[in-house]
Design a protein that fits this description.
The chain has 139 residues and is mostly beta strands. It contains 2 helices and 10 strands, in the order βββαβββββαββ. The longest helix has 7 residues, at 41-47. It has helices at residues 41-47, 111-117; strands at residues 7-18, 22-29, 34-40, 54-59, 65-67, 78-89, 93-100, 103-110, 124-129, 135-138. It has a 5-stranded antiparallel β-sheet.
């Protein structure tokens, strides 16, 4: 299946913590970073997820925020450090490619945000993704 979601990173499920309706699924990415996806219990069951399952973490580029350093005091748990490799700015929005260990992420943010953060190729950034915006697919 082909998807329009640009950010597709391979990983392995480390743990599944079920709740009433949702589960927190912790995934170790190929680069060694860990992220959490909050998905329904039905999805966990339908995908057959358990520790050791091979998955792809999927995040729309519009759901990736960027910061110039790790952020404390924030509910967003998925924070992956990286380096900007390219900035393609349009009239209002910009596409920012970020190299992270083992993968590349794309963030679509406003052109004003690019300017305010001073983002250029070589800039150090942290990609921020809410766990509710991370989907999982099995291989």
């Amino acid at each position: 299946m082909s998807l329009s979601i640009r950010n597709q990173i391979a990983g392995t499920v480390v743990a599944v913590t079920p709740g009433e309706v949702m589960a927190a699924v912790r995934v170790r990415l190929e680069g060694g970073q860990e992220i959490t996806a909050a998905i329904t219990l039905d999805a966990v069951s339908e995908l057959g997820l358990a520790a050791g399952s091979a998955v792809r973490a999927l995040v729309k580029s519009t759901e990736v925020a960027l910061a110039t350093a790790a952020v404390e005091g924030l509910s967003i748990r998925n924070q992956i450090p990286g380096t900007v490799t390219d900035v393609a700015a349009g009239g209002a929005m910009a596409s920012v490619k970020v190299a992270v260990v083992g993968a590349e992420l794309t963030a679509v943010i406003t052109r004003d945000a690019v300017a305010d953060l001073g983002l250029v190729a070589g800039s150090s950034v942290v990609a921020l993704m809410k766990s509710t915006e991370v989907s999982l697919a099995t291989a």
